[in-house]
């Protein structure tokens, strides 16, 4: 089976992790801050905070932005459930903004209209979480303008998008957002096994993120209430979590990061080859906006005739092609249906979902494997 995504692990990655295994620290050692500063400098952000996974980063990001009971958080329905679950963890209320039909990205026209309505009804969101689906940035310039006008905060869910650029700048630079979150799950662009990072330019947010990641405990003498204590002393200031990344994970991350640009360029090369070879078939490829260089986490095709999706999907699976679907609209999940969402809520998202198939794409994918994917697609279309 050709999988839809796959990690790339080199001997250098293995050697680096073995070195850390033999070192004094498996966690809370020097590797995590080193990885954090490497990510911050790669992205051009002031701060990077590593955590156990991107879901934890999204949760921490909501908490750092003071999302609490009754606060409204808007995100895209075409995403992994973590993009909206993070708000529910904090007692927030989630709502969904419809997507662009050709890219599956949050639609800024739909966002503007929804904000206008919400203003009239006095129910504006506190935070909006745009999702950089497949590895291309949403229209952050527009979203940031709306954020100023309607006074909401922005968390970028860039789980797919490390190594991507928007208007020539790295995703993660946080020029148009408060916090940006990356995932390092093995199917993503680079991996730490499990892991995530949140970047920000705001010192106060960075402090909150790192504090909440480790039980809400501090040893920082400037923050401690009782100054007249020994050097063992610590205080818990907030209800935090154990969301720490280990040094083993961070070591793998730092080693992977040195190959990030080559991974993304190989993904782009394979993606343009797909586009070339798919010409003439009754389908389209996810549209990449001109201001973006995509990291191509996913290669999604949209079938012209969505009634054929199931048969095409099963044909490919039966013939050794590990296709997937990204994503089922979040609010179609039984958990969200029970919260009161109904099918038909975001028309473009549902149409997008019904016509999509994710084809295999990862740096080690061979051109003869790609040819096999095309051949099988042609056979059933
Ligand atoms: C993978 C993913 C997440 C969650 O990442 P984890 O590191 O597995 O917690 C969140 N949002 C999106 C869009 C993702 O693809």
TrEMBL record:
The modification N6-(pyridoxal phosphate)lysine is found at residue 188. CDD domains: AHBA_syn (cd00616). It comes from Pseudoalteromonas holothuriae. The active site is at residue 188. Its EC number is 2.6.1.92. GO terms for biological process: polysaccharide biosynthetic process. This is UDP-4-amino-4, 6-dideoxy-N-acetyl-beta-L-altrosamine transaminase. GO terms for molecular function: pyridoxal phosphate binding; transaminase activity. InterPro entries: DegT/StrS_aminotransferase (IPR000653), PseC (IPR020026), PyrdxlP-dep_Trfase (IPR015424), PyrdxlP-dep_Trfase_major (IPR015421), PyrdxlP-dep_Trfase_small (IPR015422). Keywords: Aminotransferase, Pyridoxal phosphate, Transferase. SUPFAM superfamilies: PLP-dependent transferases. Belongs to the DegT/DnrJ/EryC1 family.
């Amino acid at each position: 089976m050709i999988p839809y995504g796959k990690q790339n692990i080199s001997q250098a990655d293995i050697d680096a992790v073995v070195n850390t295994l033999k070192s004094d620290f498996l966690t809370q050692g020097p590797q995590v801050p080193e990885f954090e500063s490497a990510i911050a400098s790669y992205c051009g952000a002031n701060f990077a905070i590593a955590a156990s996974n991107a879901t934890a980063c999204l949760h921490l990001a909501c908490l750092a932005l003071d999302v609490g009971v009754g606060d409204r958080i808007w995100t895209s329905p075409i995403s992994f459930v973590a993009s909206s679950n993070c708000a529910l963890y904090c007692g927030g209320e989630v709502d969904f903004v419809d997507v662009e039909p050709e890219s599956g990205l949050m639609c800024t026209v739909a966002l503007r209209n929804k904000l206008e309505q919400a203003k009239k009804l006095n129910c504006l969101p506190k935070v909006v979480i745009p999702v950089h689906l497949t590895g291309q940035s949403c229209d952050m310039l527009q979203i940031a303008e709306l954020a100023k006008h309607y006074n909401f905060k922005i968390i970028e869910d860039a789980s797919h998008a490390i190594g991507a650029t928007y208007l020539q700048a790295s995703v993660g630079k946080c020029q148009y957002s408060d916090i940006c979150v990356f995932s390092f799950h093995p199917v993503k662009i680079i991996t730490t096994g499990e892991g995530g990072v949140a970047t920000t330019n705001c010192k106060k947010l960075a402090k909150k993120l790192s504090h909440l990641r480790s039980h809400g405990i501090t040893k920082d003498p400037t923050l401690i209430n009782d100054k007249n204590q020994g050097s063992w002393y610590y205080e818990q200031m907030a209800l935090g979590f154990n969301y720490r990344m280990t040094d083993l994970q961070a070591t793998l991350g730092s080693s992977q990061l040195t190959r990030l640009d080559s991974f993304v360029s190989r993904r782009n090369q394979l993606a343009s080859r797909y586009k070339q070879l798919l010409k003439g078939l009754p389908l389209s490829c996810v549209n990449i906006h001109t201001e973006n260089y995509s990291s191509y986490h996913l290669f999604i095709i949209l079938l012209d005739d969505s009634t054929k999706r199931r048969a095409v999907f099963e044909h490919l699976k039966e013939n050794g092609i590990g296709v997937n679907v990204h994503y089922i609209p979040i609010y179609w999940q039984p958990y969200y249906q029970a919260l009161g969402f109904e099918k038909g809520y975001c028309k473009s998202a549902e149409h997008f979902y019904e016509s999509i198939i994710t084809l295999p794409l990862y740096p080690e994918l061979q051109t003869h494997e790609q040819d096999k994917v095309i051949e099988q697609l042609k056979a059933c279309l």
